[in-house]
Specification:
Elements (H helix, E strand, L loop, with lengths): L2 H22 L1 E10 L2 E6 L2 E7 L2 E2 L14 H12 L3 E5 L13 E6 L6 H7 L4 E2 L8 H14 L13 E3 L2 E3 L7 E4 L4 E4 L13 E4 L2 H6 L3 E2 L17
Parallel strand pairs: 3-6, 11-13
Antiparallel strand pairs: 1-2, 1-5, 2-3, 4-7, 5-6, 8-9, 10-11, 10-12
Length: 237
């Protein structure tokens, strides 16, 4: 075999091997749960930190923010499912391997094959993180809509409230949310905004405050002009 053909064959086999490894993922053991969406894992002889792809849970250990509502419950849920378990880590093809904090970006499959990232959203312990595109984005959107519709976990306060009858007039209790967004955009509005009123129930997202909206990657509406978060973000066009 000619040297050039041999070199091409070696490169081809190497690429196939790498592709197979990516598909199969890598085995690890969860040694510690940092919070609802971050794990410390043991991969062979090395320890590494993993950030779950596509899911965001309330903060419990952020150095510059107080503990957020439902963060302890989210951490406990992830701990119950994953801590001490042997898991399979799978990266997202064509995207960054690590985030800005040097954490591995991974899908995490539990011993029974359940995708931890999806299960957190399904049970209402976190929401779909739509700031960056990923392969399972539409699946995670649907899981969040289902959890919100059922009033699970952190969505309990934003579940559709039953009508309250006062005399002959049916009324609904005031919403606990201060601002409204849509799964189909990256803009948040005041509840009375004309654009907020046009958002369908299945795409509606409720935020308790502007910081929560900013953390989800949303920017303020230019029509109703809700306040911006303390950490300034560009206004939506």
């Amino acid at each position: 075999m000619r040297p050039r053909a041999l070199a091409a064959l070696v490169v081809s086999l190497l690429l196939c091997s790498l592709a197979a490894g990516t598909t199969a993922g890598e085995q690890a053991t969860v040694s510690r749960v940092v919070d609802g969406d971050t794990l410390v894992v043991q991969i062979g002889a090395r320890e590494d930190k993993v950030r779950l792809i596509g899911v965001n849970t309330p903060e419990s250990v952020h150095p510059r923010r107080p503990v957020e509502a439902y963060s302890k419950e989210a951490s406990a849920f992830t701990r119950r499912l994953a801590q001490g378990k042997k898991v399979r880590l799978l990266g997202e093809a064509g995207t960054l391997n690590r985030d800005k904090y040097s954490r591995l970006l991974r899908y995490v499959f539990l011993p029974d094959g359940v995708l931890l990232n999806a299960e957190i959203i399904r049970q209402g312990y976190g929401h779909a993180d739509l700031r960056y595109p990923f392969a399972k984005m539409e699946e995670f959107r649907a899981l969040e809509r289902e959890a919100r519709g059922r009033g699970l976990g952190l969505w309990a306060a934003s579940a559709p409230a039953p009508a309250v009858t006062t005399g002959t007039t049916a009324a609904r209790p005031a919403s606990a949310a201060a601002y409204v967004g849509s799964l189909r955009s990256r803009v948040y509005h005041r509840e009375s905004c004309e654009w907020a009123l046009k958002i369908s129930a299945q795409n509606r997202i409720l935020f308790k405050n502007v910081e929560e909206a900013r953390e989800a990657g949303f920017t303020p509406c230019r029509i109703c002009l809700p306040p911006a978060a303390k950490t300034a973000v560009p206004a939506a066009r």
